[in-house]
Amino acid sequence: MLFWERFVDNLPYFLEVLIPAAGMTVRIAAGAFVLAIVVGLVLALLQTIRIGLVTLVVRSYIELIRGTPVLAQLFILYFGLTEVGIRFTPIQAAILGLGLNGGAYLAEVFRAGIESIHAGQMEAALTVGMTPLTAMRYVILPQALRVVVPPTTNYSIALLKDTAIVSAVAAPEIMFKARNLVMETYLSAQIYLLVAIMYLVMSLILAFISRRLERRLGESGTTGQAGAA
Amino acid sequence: MSEMLAVYQKHLGEWLPQLIDAAGNTLRMTALAFVLAFVVGLLLALAKLSPIAPLRLFASGYIEVMRGIPSLAILFLIYFGLADFGLVFDAFPAAVIGFGLNGAAYMAEIFRAGILSIHSGQTEAALTVGMTPLAAMRWVVLPQALRVVLPPLANFGIALLKDTSVASIISAPELMLRARDLASSSFRPMEVFLLAAAIYLVMSLPVSFLTRRLEARFSRGQAHV
Amino acid sequence: MNGETAEPLLRVVDLYKNFGATEVLKGVDLEVKPGETITIIGPSGSGKTTLLRCINYLERPTSGHVFIEDRLVGEAWDGKSYRHIGDRELAKERTEMGMVFQRFNLWPHLTALGNVTLGPIRVLKKPAAEARAEGQALLEKVGLGHKAHEYPERLSGGQQQRVAIARALAMQPKLLLFDEPTSALDPELIGEVLNVMRALALEGRTMLVVTHEMRFAQDVADRVIFMDHGVIVEEGPPAQLFANPTHNRTREFLRQVVER
User: Fold this and answer.
1) Whether the Cβ atoms of residue B187 and residue B222 lie closer than 8 Å to each other
2) What ipTM does this complex have?
3) Is B143 left (phi over 0), alpha (psi -120 to 50) or beta?
4) Is A67 helix (H, G, I), strand (E, B) or coil?
5) With left for phi above 0 and alpha for psi between -120 and 50, is residue C245 left, alpha or beta?
6) Total of domains in chain B
7) In angstroms, what CA-CA distances link C151 with A221, A222, C155, C183?
8) Which CATH architecture has domain A2-228?
9) How far is B28 from B145, CA to CA, in rounded Å?
């Protein structure tokens, strides 16, 4: 078949361009993931202190982010902010956009994780003289960690795939480089097939690492059930 | 801030009708892709639960592969890639097919979880009154599973609505594409994209509000829908 | 030990607690002297548990005050009015009162020893080795030295509750609060927990025990308090209260409990 012959012939050249681009994809995803975890954790903890105004601001942020497309958020960061003189590079905008977006999602995940821990756990910590913050650190969060790891790793896979859209602000990752390759060679079917395979491989590797991590967390110690009989 | 208001004062009358018109396309794209994902997803779920090994294998493979690839890559494959083989789609149908086939993989997992959440005693009871396994699935399990999957289906719908914005990258006519056009013609990207985001929010918030009410009701125990 | 002249360790003054429109405590006054063991009995919903939770400020009273050794708990008097104190001060005051919960509330991510030592290490800032040695000794004391490195889910209910008692003791509290410590246990496991509590009472610990175990209330308590509908109906030495209750409600309650 001609298609496959051409595909095999062109493969080295495609890979030469796309593998470094995949590295950039991973770097953008990793940067956004770290940012999302920090933002998500801060937002989740801010909601536990139960101050009306703080909760209102945090909830609004989460609802606004979750109710609008990440692509729109990306465009506002990259194109919109130039109006007020703030200019990000494509990579900065990509990490910031995906990270702030993911922060809203992870905030919900973390909040659910914290709330899943029985109230008696916090009370027992308070009765031995811990402050709520100390109790959060040594009693609640270690237990919540177990609950939030599966949704967080799932999010990381979704995030890896979402990086494809930052090609729209010309961040030099796989999708962007692939589009340039197509413009250069017109071999769109071959290139996009290869791109799909590359994403699949990266996703599968990430999923494999995630499963390993979840299993290790599942084995150490006990289940996340509260001490109720 | 006041400058922004001035921009809206000047342009809102021109932008809003265009964006609302395009939002209609976004809703159409979402609805069509949702239906496609629903049908293919249900078939995949049934295939994955069927006793026939090749069916199970196919369904599992399809789901794994689709879930590992960005929807944008799938859109590109369908819109640009298939053209190499003489299969030429307009951007809009390409987007519907892409989102539908991609979403089917997620939908399948939702359905499968819903079906598995129904206690096996339900099927057994149906078998004891003489139903075939397929009839038991149709008349006993699926009606109950449908209630369980309603909230995740709605959440999927909301995610899909927002994801359709990605179709603007293959120039499919929908809200985000119109916004990009207006942004570049007016040199006012901030105001245009904020307006577009607000329209997405208006479309998604009612659904997500209802979904959360529904979820709260379900989690309080047996609800009557 | 509990001479008539001793200053009260705990003083509860005119305590009220509402949950929304529901009045759960309607003016409770109570004094506990050092070394006293007091059991609180009464029908469910009578406010016993809420009283304990107000004493260590897990619930903030609607009005009224709690004193430990004449120092206010959970509030401060600034010369004109009372104000609620911050988390840090409250935490410090809570170290003086240990609490044992009905449902144990052991921390499942820590071993038995980890549960006992977390407070001493993180709150009292004891060196880990010292805390572990003391924790091990406390676990021996409740008969669980050999279970120090087990996680709570591997322990029976009775064992979990004994770990919870050791956890409370590790903070060297002046007062121990027990909230129906045997109510969540299978009948055959109740005895081991009551035995530990009995030993603590004999040591002269100051204990306030909400319980449905009438025999324990009768045998171990210096004083028994009967609560109903958010007030203390009657109190007295167990012999008197169980044999000759003065109030109809007490008599009625005791009759129902005995019949059960």
Assistant:
1) no
2) 0.87
3) alpha
4) coil
5) beta
6) 1
7) 7, 7, 7, 22
8) Orthogonal Bundle (1.10)
9) 27
Alpha-carbon gap, residue C3 to A72, rounded angstroms:
76
pLDDT tens sequence for chain C (260 residues) = 444 567 899 999 999 999 999 999 999 999 999 999 999 999 988 999 999 999 999 999 999 999 999 899 999 988 888 898 988 899 999 999 999 999 999 999 899 999 999 999 999 999 999 999 999 999 999 999 999 999 999 999 999 999 999 999 999 999 999 999 999 999 999 999 999 999 999 999 999 999 999 999 998 999 999 999 999 999 999 999 999 999 999 999 999 887 65
Name which of B15, B4, B19, B12 is nearest B201 in CA terms: B19
Q: Please list, in sequence order, all residues whose beta carbon lies within 8 angstroms of the beta carbon of residue A164, skipping any fewer than 6 positions away.
A: A173, A174, A175, A199, B70, B72, B73
Q: How many CB atoms lie within 10 A of CB B203?
A: 19
Please indicate whether, in this complex, the C-beta atoms of A79 and B84 are within 8 angstroms of each other.
no
**Quick check: helix, strand or coil at residue C103?**
coil
- Residue A117 identity (one-letter amino acid): I
CB spacing of A124 vs C107 below 8 angstroms: yes
Delimit the domains of chain A by residue range: 2-228
Domain at B46, CATH number: 1.10.3720.10
Band (B58; pLDDT cuts 50, 70, 90)? very high
Task: Please classify residue C141 by burial: count the beta carbons closer than 10 Å to its beta carbon, then call 0-12 exposed, 13-18 middle and 19+ buried.
Answer: middle
Helix (H, G, I), strand (E, B) or coil at C38: strand
**Rounded distance, CA A161 to CA A165, Å?**
8
Give A177→chain C minimum CA distance, Å: 47
Candidates B101, B182, B201: best to mutate against A (most CBs of A within 10 A) is B201
Please tell me if residue B80 touches chain A, with a CB cutoff of 8 Å.
yes
Alpha helices (H) in chain C, listed in sequence order:
48-55, 87-94, 112-122, 128-141, 157-169, 187-202, 214-220, 238-243, 248-259
- Tell if the CB–CB gap between C109 and A120 is shorter than 8 Å: no
H helix or E strand, kind and range, residue B110: helix B91-116
Range of the domain at B93: 2-223
